[in-house]
Amino acid sequence: MDQGSAIHPLPRKFRGIRDSDSARRGAPSVIAAVYFRLKNTDAVSFLAACSGQGLLGGAPGPDLVRFVTHHGISPADVQRALVICREALRG
After folding, report:
1. Read out DSSP for 54-90?
2. Of the candidates 29, 33, 77, which has an alpha carbon nearest to the alpha carbon of residue 55?
3. What pairs with residue 9 in β-bridges?
4. Residue 8, H or E segment
5. Domains of the chain by range and CATH?
6. 83: DSSP letter
7. In sequence order, what are the residues at sequence separation of 6 or more whose Cβ sits closer than 8 angstroms to the Cβ of residue 56?
8. What is the 3-state secondary structure (H, E, C) of 10-32?
9. What DSSP letter does each residue of 24-56 carry, written as one string?
């Protein structure tokens, strides 16, 4: 993202946790959770802007957001999520 000054990535938590549905089927799916600490906006406002574009996330703290990928999410989906985040940060 070119808005690097607006967000501060935190360490990726839960890296390598298997999706329970995939684990039951024996599929090699892995969930990736990414956390960001926001600098110039609050999590509720940021996530509201993202959800208006179809990107859902969580707010475990007032300035902390969490996004999780699941089975079926493509690299193109991740790129679209980054565009949505950038637009939400620009307001």
Report:
1. T---EEEETTEEEEEE-TT--HHHHHHHHHHHHHHHH
2. 77
3. 36
4. strand 7-9
5. 7-90 (3.90.1150.10)
6. H
7. 47, 50
8. CCCCCCCCECHHHHHHCCCCECE
9. HHT---B-EEEEEEESSS-HHHHHHHHHTTT--
HSE-up of residue 13 (Cα within 13 Å, Cβ side): 8
**Locus of tokens 């509201």:** 48
Compute CA distances 74 → 7, 11, 41, 44, 78, whole Å.
Answer: 23, 22, 28, 26, 7
Q: Which of 18, 10, 2 is nearest to 66 (CA)?
A: 10
**DSSP 8-state code for residue 58:** E
Per-residue pLDDT of the chain (91 residues; tens, 9 = 90+): 333 334 444 344 434 444 444 445 555 555 678 898 999 999 999 999 999 999 999 999 999 999 988 778 888 888 999 999 999 999 8
Residue 49 in tokens:
């802007």
Say which amino acid occupies 47: L
